Amino acid sequence: MSSPPVIAVTSGEPAGIGPELCGMLAGKQWPARIVLIGDAELLASRAALTGLHLGLRPYAVNNPVLPGTLEVLHVPLATPSLPGVLDARNAAYVLQTLDAAITGCSKGEFAAMVTAPVQKSIINDAGIPFSGHTEYLAEHTATPRVVMMLAGEYGGSHGTPASWMRVALATTHLPLSAVPAAVTPALLEETLRILHADLRDKFGFAVPRILVAGLNPHAGEGGHMGREEIDVIEPVLARLREEGMQLIGPLPADTLFVPHQLARGDAVLAMYHDQGLATLKFATFGGGINVTLGLPIIRTSVDHGTALDLAGTGRADPGSLFAAMDCALAMLATQEAHS
Which stretches are transmembrane (predicted)? Predict the structure, then answer.
């Protein structure tokens, strides 16, 4: 890239580990300008509390890169925040940091956004309907359909390289009882088209191979344990295969995540949240990431929560945030190569 990209990093729930994780970004040299979005005093005080020595300066569009220094786009807290102590009065502040990042990305001021974790419960306690970053980003970029994908390295030892596991979701934050009715032909087709396009355009797979999970145990076992595979999933896969998509499935989810099966594909499409993410987080937690596919902007995130019990202790692990930053930069490089 001709000049370092500017990456916005939202600092997340102020009572959680997000603010201190953001400060830890200064401990590594990045081929980018990093702009933290949050309360400047909070970021400085949390860094001091956890023993981080870093330089912070106000964000300006034309700032030069200064090694070891992070820029801050200041968004003021509504009320002072203590580590580990949630306060609904700061719920709107959390969303204001997201709005600033979305606006900057949409205008081209930021090349991508990376998000630290938020606490959905306290936002809802404040009377603000909020089901997650993914849905919020879709609404505020006027994107009719987005796809949540988590990814991370797993395995690898004694000189054997680790492999990447990528798991996208057909449905996200729904009660399990609502999933079957939500898995419609239209939803599956839209999801697979978005997943296929972004694996190609943002991750560099010329012909993406997608492993598709069934909905029911044993992928329905020929209709004896449910007919969604026969009536809904298989017809969609057959139609898209005719267009040239490499789709494998529907596969039983209980054996899909073994290494020899994963080696057959570049990503997995799971039908619901825990079907895909329980295995992925077991295999990659602490170094995994969350990517929102289908957006007009690049957004990556950590794959963990706010860890209120660790906030302010200095023991939070920045591995997932670092991986999210690496992924955003890689996606930018792939996009530039395709442009």
Answer: none
Instruction: Please tell me whether 290 is known to bind a ligand.
Output: yes
pLDDT at residue 1, as a whole number: 45
Binding residue per annotation — 193? no
The residue-averaged pLDDT of 97-122 equals 97
The response to whether 299 counts as a known ligand-binding position is yes
Q: Is 273 annotated as a binding residue?
A: yes
User: What 8-state DSSP symbol labels residue 237?
Assistant: H
Closest CA to 14 of 98, 77, 102, 92: 77
CA distance 79 to 141: 28
* Separation between Cα atoms, residue 26 and residue 24, nearest integer Å: 5
Domain spans of the chain? Answer: 1-143+295-339, 145-293
d(CA 219, CA 202): 30
**Cα angle for residues 175, 95, 117 (degrees, 5° grid):** 65
> Could you please report the per-residue DSSP string of 174-201?
--GGGHHHH--HHHHHHHHHHHHHHHHH
Is 120 known to sit in a ligand binding site? no
Annotated binding residue at 281? Answer: yes
Share of the chain above pLDDT 70, in %: 97
A 10 A CB-CB count for 213 gives 24
State residue 64's pLDDT score. 87
What pLDDT sits at residue 307? 96
Q: 1-143+295-339: what fold?
A: Isopropylmalate Dehydrogenase (3.40.718)
Model's pTM, two decimal places? 0.92
Count of helices and strands (H, E) across the chain: 13, 12
Alpha-carbon distance 86 to 89, whole Å? Answer: 9
Whether the CA torsion 22, 27, 30, 35 is positive or negative: it is positive
CATH code: domain 145-293 is 3.40.718.10
Asked if the domains 1-143+295-339 and 145-293 are classified in one and the same CATH topology, the answer is yes
